[in-house]
Amino acid sequence: MLFIGWEGVGLCSYLLIAFGTRTSPNAKAGNKAFIVNRIGDWGLTLGIFLLMVVIAANAQKLGATDGRYLSYDVFLPHLGDVLKSMPGVTTAIALLLFVGACGKSAQFPLYLWLPDAMAGPTPVSALIHAATMVTSGVVLLNRMNVVYQLSPVASAIVACVGAFTALFAALVAFGQTDIKKVLAYSTVSQLGFMFVACGAGAYWAGMFHVTTHAFFKALLFLGAGAVIHAMGHNQDMRNYGKLAKYLPITFVTMFIGYLAISGVYGLSGFYSKEAIIGSALANNHAAIQGYQLGQYAGGRLSLSRF
Predict the structure, then answer these.
(1) What local confidence, expressed as pLDDT, does residue 10 receive?
(2) Maximum distance among all alpha carbons in the chain?
(3) I need a surface site. Which of 65, 74, 79, 304 has the fewest CB within 10 A?
(4) 302 versus 129: which is more confidently predicted?
């Protein structure tokens, strides 16, 4: 069911982005989104197959004697006991599932499709590319947290890729002039925050940011759609000016969304982003070669040997 839903939402994204003539930019953007997502799906499929092999080989221990090998309620409660004796296989499963998550959730280097997906209608961007499809990778990592808890190496890679993506996408957004592409790179950056939370073991914080981000990013996308409509479908921000005078309601709502995504105190973004940053600094979960990532001691961030 996970795989069917995973492919189904990818198909819906392709159909909504590529709606138009065969030679339109929408068609090319839809094809790009579909192809890049297939790269991620390759990793997801291999991860599922490897997990199937482990579950089938340990059916008795997992209590999957009735043939329901891949039902979450059957294998997840006992999966940790089985994987403890197989650290290499655990890391392989975690990294393969992470490749799938990178494709759907636009993490580096599989982020290329999301900015081009802005060729689709703005309501589609607000729903699928801000709140629904792109967060499925974070939901996958949370759902399979048992695997990542047993693989500090994979968790460290998740956290590092997420942190780099958050910084990289935010810097790229500075050079954009298309209002929707600025928001697209902002989405990539915020998804990086969510992956940092998952890598640091603060899965609840990642899901909390999924929820808060869905609201204020959808608000910003819909506000951007109102601006684009008012500007005669001109998306170049260099042609904008004094819009607060002509679009006062849009100005107020987008400004609230801007404050929320910036993490201003009192708004939802502050609580979810602070939870992620605090969890990353206090982290004792993700590790590579015996070094904990993000030990916060003595007022400074450092690597410490455990």
Answers:
(1) 86
(2) 69
(3) 65
(4) 129
Distance CA 101, CA 10 (A): 12
Length of the chain as a residue count: 306
Distance from C-alpha of 140 to C-alpha of 44, rounded to nearest angstrom? 10
Q: Which structure tokens are listed for 58?
A: 């340990």
Structure tokens at 166: 């958050």
* Selection from 72, 62, 162, 75 nearest residue 111 by Cα: 162
pLDDT band at 297 (very low <50, low <70, confident <90, very high): very low
Alpha carbon separation from 189 to 168, 223, 248 (Å, rounded): 7, 19, 28
Strands 300-305 and 287-288, how do they pair? unpaired
Residue written as token pair 């492919």: 7
Looking at residue 304, what DSSP letter applies? E
**Burial (CB count <10 Å: 0-12, 13-18, 19+), residue 121:** middle
Which of 259, 232, 265, 18 has its CA nearest to residue 119? 18
Phi, psi angle pair for 122, to nearest 5°: -60, -40
Question: How far, in Å, CA of 199 to CA of 106, rounded?
Answer: 16
**Neighbouring residues of 67: CB distance < 8 A, sequence distance ≥ 6:** none
DSSP 8-state code for residue 109: T
Structure tokens at 82: 């089985």
Closest CA to 219 of 122, 94, 104, 74: 122
What are the sequence ranges of the domains in the chain? 2-305
Encode pLDDT of 64-115 as tens digits.
666 667 778 878 888 888 888 888 999 999 999 999 999 989 888 888 888 8
The token duo for 191 is: 């998804």
Amino acid at 117: A
Q: What angle do CA 146, 140, 14 make, to 5 degrees?
A: 165
3-state secondary structure of 152: helix
Q: Tell me the pLDDT tens digit for each residue of 167-225.
A: 999 999 999 999 999 999 999 999 999 999 999 888 999 999 999 999 999 999 999 99
